[in-house]
Structures are given as C-alpha cells and as structure tokens.
Amino acid sequence: MLSDKNILDEIQSGRLKINPFNSDHLTSNGYDLSVFVEDGNEFKDLDEIVIKPNEFRRLKTVEEIEMPDDIIGLLYLRSRYSRNGLVGMFAVVDAGYKGRLFVSVKNLGDKEIVLKPKEGVIHIIFERLESKAQIPYGTTEKSHFQGMK
C-alpha cells in the first residue's frame, strides 16, 4: 500500500492524479474524497448531508482521479460514519480508471447521520500491483464508466 509520501511522489510525477487535490485530505495511508449527494436527477454540493435511518443515498466524488496502470484504489467510508451505522457499497478502482467515483450508502442506524462532504467522506487507499495491468480499465468495451463526470 502507498504511504502519504508515496502518494505525493506519484502525484508529483503525474502518474496519479487527484483533481482538485487538497493536502489536508491526505492521510498516512490514503486520501479522503469529498462528495456531492444525489437529489432528484442531479448531484448537489451541500455543506452537510443528512441521512435518515434506513435512508439510501447516492454520492459522487468531487475529485476526479486518474489511476496509473499499476495502482488500484480501495474505497472505505471514513470510520466516523461507519461507527454510527452508515454502510457503503463500493468497488475496487481499477488500474487505468479515469473519472469521478460513484458510491451508494445506507443508514442502518437508528439516528440521523450528518455527512460533512467537504471534510471527506470516502477514504481511498492506493495499492501498487506487482506489475502493470495488461488490460487496464479504459482499454476495452467493458470500460463503461471511464471518464464519468
């Protein structure tokens, strides 16, 4: 897994891109992604998002990322939210992926959960593959989500 130093090295080399990048969101082992929340048919930029008990919400990252061919991303909720009953439906971010990330969350707790989107909601950990992917995301017709905005 990449440390904060490794992440910065990858960003400075231009191989890994996080746009916009906020150094306050860099952690010792990853990066905290900010989110927009789906409201109707659009995603909105709010200062806080209230998720009621048993409520399901779709989120989209503010940041666009570009993964090199030898690094994947593992997504997690920041623990402050999961400790209160929020669960997320996540996938691995493939080597070669470019675009925003979309995730779904549900409040399984019995109290409202307030997300602070600008402080970061989703934590991404970067892991280096032993070799470059032979078929990175974006190189086949199966890459349906490449370039998501």
Summarize the structure in words:
- This protein has 149 residues and is mainly beta.
- It is 9% helix and 39% strand.
- The protein is built from two helices and 14 strands.
- The protein has helices at 4-13, 79-82; strands at 17-19, 26-27, 30-33, 35-39, 42-44, 49-51, 56-61, 64-66, 71-77, 86-89, 98-99, 102-107, 113-115, 122-128.
- The strands form four sheets. It has a five-stranded antiparallel sheet, with no helix packed on it.
- A hairpin with a 2-residue loop joins strand 4 and strand 5.
- It is globular and about 45 Å long.
- The two termini are 27 Å apart.
- The mean pLDDT is 91.
Characteristics of this structure?
single chain, 5-stranded antiparallel beta sheet, 4-stranded antiparallel beta sheet, 149 residues, 14 strands, globular, mainly beta
Record field, number of beta strands: 14
The profile of the biggest β sheet is: 5 strands, antiparallel
Structural class: mainly beta
How many DSSP helices? 2
Runs with pLDDT <50, length 5+? none
In the sheet with the most strands, the strands line up as 5-4-7-12-10
Q: Spell the H/E element sequence.
A: HEEEEEEEEEHEEEEE
Indicate the percent of residues in helices: under 10%
Terminal CA distance: 27 Å
- The mean pLDDT is 91
What proportion of the residues form beta strands (DSSP E)? Answer: 35-45%
* Alpha carbon gyration radius: 15 Å
- What does the overall shape look like? globular
